[in-house]
Structures are given as structure tokens and as C-alpha cells.
Amino acid sequence: MAKRKRSTKKVDKSSKYLAYIAWFLAIVALMLIALSIGYYFGIKDARQTLTPKQTKQTKRANREEKLPKIAVTKVETQLKEVLKKGQQTYISAAHEIEDEKLANPPKVKEKKRVIYEHKPMLVIIIDDVQTARQVKAIKSLHLPLTMSFLPPRAARPNSAKLAAHEKFYMVHLPMQAMHFSAAEPDTLKVSDSQEQISQRIAFIKKEFPRVRYINNHTGSKFTANERAVNRLIYALNKNHIHFIDSRTTAKTKVPQVEKAYGLKYVARDVFLDHHMDKAYVLKQIKIAIKVAKAHGHAIAIGHPHKETLEAIRESKKLFKDVDLVQVYKVY
């Protein structure tokens, strides 16, 4: 009988050990199952969160690839009629300046290259904006170009209304040229009195209430006359408007007058479309970028012509070397 009791005890102990091992294995199995489930759902969630972002990036990249083609179509269709109407009287922007040499910055002695804290900034002002078609063509490029609107007249009564829809705009004010017969109505002349010029600026302020910057349309004769420029700057100051010299003449008196008023002289550096040729405009854009890199910023002026806008569109890769900004970022 005693022997039988000892064997029973041994069996009980073995059973307990086996039970412990079984529980341990069960716990390990449960842990492995839990880890597998967590890994599965983790991967699934990661896919769900990552895929939409990747899709958005892909869609954005596709849009960027397709954008140039869309922009070309818009430029071609929206400006086609404008160009047809203007071919006889406005073939190019050559009438703006009195000498082709003025299209580029004056040559100066090579200076030591300055290192700027910010990326070089380039401003492109598009002058002569006056129709809805031109505004749409410019905006189709999806670039921060500065539109400078001509004042309203019978042929374009809505230029001020178009400007009112823009967050920022300039006014392209007609001024007397040395050699140009097709002058705009109400062009400022060197013979205008202070009262006449002040009244004209007051009218511009009324039509374009948010105007902060004005540049000259033609004006090679007007800006070369110190007395006329003095009257203009006086009137602009009274209305808190800055003047940007389009530099249509090498004899401009704007620097001297603005210095006398304690103002900073700001002028156009590069004229993009003295010749209405896309290859020429592309060359001028490269010059403007070079000036921006050398001096930290540059101002270029172009017009809403098909060739000009297409050249700007094709220069998007070149603009990666600069910050393309509105004029108020520089001045």
C-alpha cells in the first residue's frame, strides 16, 4: 500500500509541471498571435495613411506636368484676338524706350560679389494690361507677376474694374515721349501745371483706390524734364504712391528729384520684349536673373503679348534660382 501512495504523488507532481508548461506555451502562443494581429493592422493602417498622401503628391506632380500645356493653350487662345487687333499699331514694345541699349541695365564696373541672406528676388511687371482676356492669359501662368493697368478710356473702359478684382496691382501712367505719335488720352506732358498733374493723380487714385505703385508708360520726354518730374513726385507723395521709373530714357531726372525728396530711387533693370520675339525674350529673362543674382533683386518689364507670356512660361525652370515676387516685396 505504501508503494502505491508514493507513485501517486509522483504522478501528481508530473501533472503539475505539465500544466505549468502548457500554460506557459499558451501564453507565449497568445502573445505571438497578438503581435501578428498588431503587425497586420499596423501595416494596413500605414497603407491607408500613406497611400492618400502619395496619391495627392502624384496628382500634384501630374498637374505640374500638364500645366505648361494648359498654359500654352490659354495664352494662345486668349491673346490671339488681342494680337490681331494690335498688329497694325502695336507690333512690339520698342516704342516704350528711345534707345535699344536701354533694354538692359547700364554697364558698371565689376564689383565684389555680395552674399545675401535671402534668395535673389526677381520682379516681372507686365505693363499695358487693359482687357479681361489679357488678365486671364497672365493668370493662366500661375506665377506671381505684377500687372500694371493702363488708365480707363473709351477703348478700354473696364481696366480699373479689372484691377479691382486683383489683390495687388500697379498703374501704368502714360507720359509724354520724345518720339511717339500714338499717345494715350490724358498723357502727362512737360507743359502741364502742378494743378493739372495733381488732378490727374487724384483721378487715378479715385479709379484705382488701392494703387500703391505707378510706373510710366513711354515718358522719355517727361521723365527727362526735372520740373515735370518734380511736379509728379509731389503729387504722388500727397497720395502715398511710390514711383517706379520704367527708365525709358538715359536722361531720366527721377533719381535726382527722388533724392531731393528723401525717397529711394527704384527703376526697371531689364526690358523683356523690346523685340517681339520669343528667343529674344528668353535671352532677356536670363539677363534679368543674372542681375538679380548679382544685386540681390531685379525688376524686369514685359507686356501681355503671346511671345512674352510663352517665354515666361518656358522659363519656369530658370526661376528656381530666384524668388519670383510681386514688386512690394522688393520696394
What would you note in describing this structure?
There is one protein chain. By secondary structure, the chain is α/β, with parallel strands linked by helices. The chain has two domains: 1-88; 92-329, TIM Barrel (Alpha-Beta Barrel). Helices cover 48% and strands 12% of the residues. It contains eight helices and eight strands. Helix 7 (278-295) links the parallel strand 6 and strand 7 (297-302). Residues 1-5, 43-68 and 85-91 have low confidence and may be disordered.
The main pleated sheet reads as: 8 strands, parallel
Number of helices: 8
Mean of all residue-level pLDDT scores: 82
Measured by DSSP, the beta-strand proportion falls in: 5-15%
CATH top-level class of the largest domain = Alpha Beta
Structural class by sheet pairing and helices: alpha/beta
Runs in which pLDDT lies below 50 for 5 or more consecutive residues are 1-5, 43-68, 85-91
Please state the CA-atom Rg, rounded to the nearest Å: 34 Å
Q: CATH topology of the largest domain, what is it called?
A: TIM Barrel
Total number of beta strands: 8
Helix percentage range = 40-55%
Q: Output the CATH homologous superfamily of the largest domain.
A: Glycoside hydrolase/deacetylase
Terminal CA distance reads 112 Å
The CATH architecture of the largest domain: Alpha-Beta Barrel
> What is the string of SSEs from the N terminus onward?
HEHEHEHEHEHEHEHE
How would the global form be characterised? elongated
